[in-house]
User: Fold DNA-3-methyladenine glycosylase I from Undibacterium squillarum.
Amino acid sequence: MQKQRCRWANPANPLYLRYHDEEWGVPCHDELRLFEMLNLEGAQAGLSWETVLNKREAYRAAFDGWNAELIAAYDAAKVEALMQNAGIIRNRRKIEATISNARCYLQLKQETGGLDAYLWGWTDGKTVYTDGVHVATSPLSDQISKDLKKRGFKFVGSTIIYAYLQATGIISDHDAGCDWRHKA
Assistant:
């Protein structure tokens, strides 16, 4: 019997199906992945997630395995090199936002222990389950977005943060008919 997945999971793209089945909506406590996903969700602004997902490995290579200490030290020459990298989305504002976010992340890590403690602190360590009716934002994404912006993060509007919370399993939002609904 064929598995039922969320409507957005493109059945023609094995990478996308694996992402849906193994990552999306699964509670994440891995600091490196939380940092990666925050930046990838920002890179996705105005584009499809599938576009970013297909470039994920190139992003990992281009941004030093998402090592925030290295990224925070990037200079203008590195930005220019990234602008020439056809494997990533060559948008200067998004590239510069990633560098800025690395610096903000290092500060957040000193203050809160990192994204894991920070994000899960908003929900007392519990996943928020939805009714399967998709929305673009929530009061939770509004609050986190506002706080991250105050901390200097970029490309962290409420819609981006809602998608980020879904991707990292803080919000479980699989379609009502999806076989992965409430599995995590």
